[in-house]
Write a structure and sequence with these properties.
Blueprint (H helix, E strand, L loop, with lengths): L11 E3 L11 H15 L8 H7 L10 H8 L7 H8 L2 H4 L10 H22 L5 H10 L4 H4 L8 H17 L8 E5 L2 E5 L6 E2 L5 E4 L5 E4 L2 E2 L3 E6 L5 E4 L3 E2 L2 E6 L5 E4 L6 E3 L2 E6 L5 E8 L2 E3 L2 E6 L5 E8 L2 E2 L4 E6 L5 E4 L12 E4 L2 E3 L9 E6 L5 E3 L2 E3 L2 E3 L3 E6 L5 E3 L7 E3 L3 E6 L5 E3 L7 E3 L3 E6 L4 E5 L6 E3 L3 E5 L3 E5 L10 E2 L6 E5 L5 E4 L2 E3 L9 E2 L12 H11 L3 H14 L6 H10 L5 H9 L4 H10 L3 H7 L5 H14 L11 H5 L8
Parallel strand pairs: 1-40, 3-5, 4-6, 5-8, 6-9, 7-10, 8-11, 9-12, 10-13, 11-14, 12-15, 13-16, 14-17, 15-18, 16-19, 17-20, 18-21, 19-23, 20-24, 21-25, 22-26, 23-27, 24-28, 25-29, 27-30, 28-31, 29-32, 30-33, 31-34, 32-35, 33-36, 34-37, 35-38, 37-40, 38-41, 39-43
Antiparallel strand pairs: 2-3, 41-42
Length: 679
């Protein structure tokens, strides 16, 4: 870098006008981003901040998907929607197409029943019964709680699910319109029903129903306790009612033709917990409606809805349309047609102006208890409309990954906040649109935004597009997040005066990285008024200190309140010193360090020395900020923990000591002045 920028400099990346075309490979994107980061004085080391914080922090929670950790370690890889999709979706679904077999129906049926029986045996052998009644009650009201899901973390259903999915895809693609004799018989998996070409009504309870045609009505009920529940309908405008969620079970609906109506009063339509559920509709203009946990939703299992053709309508109240909770992969894949995806929302306890949707490529973990899963919505063609409230359209929350991948068409995306390529709290959210003149509308924290050690990405590969949001959006990041919006030809509009367009806020003494990559024809507006493109070198922004609330139910904040209001400060600090000596693993150590900075006692050196012995580099960094000493700073500057190195560098500056020549610092700590450690 030729010269140090005056004042504070922002950890943001805004590509110069007139850039090259959209990158088609990861190396091209990496090179383009690296050049921008070098100009900012951050260097490519800034892309390692998330991984470094995670490696030196608490371990990942149960059920955290390995793919999430990989993408957090390499944020630019999140732009590769194809890689994410193909890594998570079974190959048999990817290659699914109708290819009728020359085998007779009876031979196909016998082979399928044998395969279903094998998958069922494996599911029952590798799982155990659990309280599914309580879980189903929670599903009827919304999202399953971590208390219900945590006991399922050790279930192993992948092999049984794979056998079931592959067998069902083979049967669905090979069966053809042949004459069938109406009958009912028992099989190793349960009752098998062969319907008629008339308008039949099928009650729940059969393990397999095959119906050759007619306008049929199917009443569905949850599949449980290792059951198999499959419908294969060869034609007609059919109606599906009830709830067909699979809970420790294997379930499928395969409909080969007709304009069908799927109206679930409860959960279902490709929804599974500790099992697998498929809905495959080959053709027709279909409507899908359900309440919660539906239309491609899963936890500790696999749930998928595939629609291969037609102009379709999808409606869910919340938690669906490609949604995953802990350990699940939820997929909604529509291959063709002008489609509409709509979602409501459950009440938001924080009253942020809209409901919680959790839809359209969304994944949620239970913060502090369980990681999320992988939620995917893929649409291959047509002019589509996506409507939701909060947490939607490529959203990951707490060790989850959410992907919305639209491959063509002039599309419209509308949401409130936490949407359109957003992630929060160690998660990944991606929205990728390959073609068409698209419109994106949101409120806050959207359109390529990463919040708190998270990766949020929006890539629009072609077309003349428009973006509108209030703030905190359009390539922005806070709390050591990574935010990327890539669109060469677009109009970007924000309402807020300062937030968005590559704004990044530092935290923990480390950068967030925000990138708004655009071309020379991009336009910018605030509150409807055309403005110049954002500045190339805006100043660093440090995230403000969190407001303290007293009294507080949070143990850490309560400790700060106690120290602040203590009538006997010396006595209070003696108690805290004793706590540090007697309980080396106390989770309050970091809060004690923060209290030390705010109200240092007479024995501050003793407290700082106790904190410096902690294994956690985060605690040691806070202690070094609060009460810097030369030995602690010299040790910290040589560590591999970025946060501790940042604190040590700031301490050395305060102490007037030089940085040791053998300290291997990341680029941003060498090039930019020390920043505050806020929390």
């Amino acid at each position: 870098m030729g010269s140090m920028w005056p004042g504070r400099t922002i950890a943001a990346a805004l590509v110069l006008a007139g850039c090259a075309g959209v990158p088609t490979g990861s190396s091209l994107l990496e090179n383009r981003v690296a050049a921008v980061l070098e100009r900012r004085g951050l260097g490519s080391d800034a892309l390692r901040v998330i991984d470094n914080l995670l490696r030196h922090g608490p371990p990942a929670p149960p059920a955290a998907p390995p793919l999430v950790l990989e993408l957090l370690a390499r944020p630019l890889d999140a732009a590769d929607a194809s890689r994410i999709f193909h890594e998570l979706v079974p190959g048999s679904l990817v290659t699914l197409q109708a290819a009728p077999s020359k085998d007779s129906f009876e031979d196909l049926l016998k082979a399928y029943l044998d395969e279903l029986a094998g998958a069922q045996r494996m599911l029952r052998a590798t799982t155990r019964a659990f309280d599914d009644e309580a879980l189903l009650r929670e599903l009827s009201a919304g999202l399953p709680s971590s208390a219900q899901l945590l006991p399922l973390a050790d279930l192993r259903v992948d092999r049984a699910n794979a056998l079931f999915i592959d067998a069902t895809v083979r049967f669905a693609s090979r069966i053809k319109d042949v004459s069938m004799n109406r009958r009912t018989f028992e099989s190793p998996i349960g009752t098998v029903v062969i319907g008629t070409r008339g308008d039949d009504r099928h009650a729940p309870g059969a393990a397999l129903i095959v119906d050759p045609g007619g306008e049929d009505v199917y009443e569905r009920a949850p599949a449980r306790n290792g059951a198999v529940s499959v419908i294969v309908d060869l034609g007609g405008n059919d109606e599906y009612r009830g709830s067909d969620v699979a809970v420790r079970a294997l379930s499928a609906i395969v409909d080969l033709g007709g304009d069908d109506r799927y109206a679930m009063e409860g959960s279902g339509l490709g929804a599974a917990i500790a099992g697998a559920s498929l809905l495959i509709d080959f053709s027709g203009d279909d409507t899908y409606a359900a309440k919660f946990f539906a239309q491609g939703a899963a936890a500790f299992g696999f749930g998928a809805l595939l629609d291969l053709g037609g102009d379709d309508r999808y409606r869910v109240e919340a938690w669906g349309q490609g949604f995953a909770a802990a350990g699940g992969v939820g997929l909604l894949w529509d291959r063709a047609g002008n489609d509409r995806y709509a979602a409501g929302g459950v009440p938001d306890p924080f009253d942020r102006g809209a409901g919680l949707s959790g839809v359209q490529g969304a994944s949620f973990g239970a913060r502090g208890r369980l990681g999320g899963g992988a939620g995917i919505l893929r649409d291959d063609g047509g002019d589509d409309v996506y409507e939701a409230q909060m947490f939607a359209q490529g959203i990951g929350y707490y060790y989850g990954v959410g992907l919305l991948w639209d491959r063509s068409g002039a599309d419209r995306y509308q949401a409130h906040r936490y949407a359109q390529g957003n992630a929060a709290h160690q998660a990944v959210g991606v929205l990728r649109d390959e073609a068409g003149d698209d419109r994106y509308t949101a409120d806050w924290y959207a359109q390529g935004m990463g919040l708190d050690i998270a990766v949020g990405v929006l890539v629009d590969a072609s077309g003349s597009d428009t973006y509108a949001a209030r703030g905190g959006s359009q390539g922005s990041a806070t709390a050591n997040g990574f935010g990327l919006l890539f669109d060469e030809q677009a109009r970007f509009e924000l309402a807020a005066a300062e937030h968005g367009w590559g704004r990044a806020e530092w935290l923990r003494g480390l950068p967030s990285v925000a990138l708004l990559l655009h071309g020379s024809r991009a336009q910018f507006a605030r509150a409807g008024q055309r403005v110049a493109p954002p500045a190339e070198n805006p100043p660093v922004a440090v995230q403000p200190m969190s407001a303290q609330t007293c009294p507080s139910s949070d143990p850490g904040e309560a400790l700060l309140c106690r120290v602040r209001d203590a009538n006997d400060p010396a006595g209070t600090w003696r108690e805290l010193s004793t706590l540090l000596e007697e309980d080396p693993a106390t989770p309050l150590a970091g809060w004690i360090a923060i209290a030390l900075a705010r109200r240092p006692p007479a024995n501050a050196s003793e407290i700082a020395a106790l904190l410096a012995k902690r294994e956690s580099c985060n605690v040691r960094a806070l202690a070094l900020r609060a009460w810097p000493t030369l030995p602690a700073a010299q040790e910290g500057i040589r560590s591999g923990c970025f946060r501790l190195q940042a604190a040590a560098r700031a301490a050395l500056a305060r102490l007037g000591a030089p940085i040791p020549a053998d300290a291997a610092l990341p680029s941003f700590l060498r090039a930019l002045p020390p920043q505050e450690d806020t929390y």
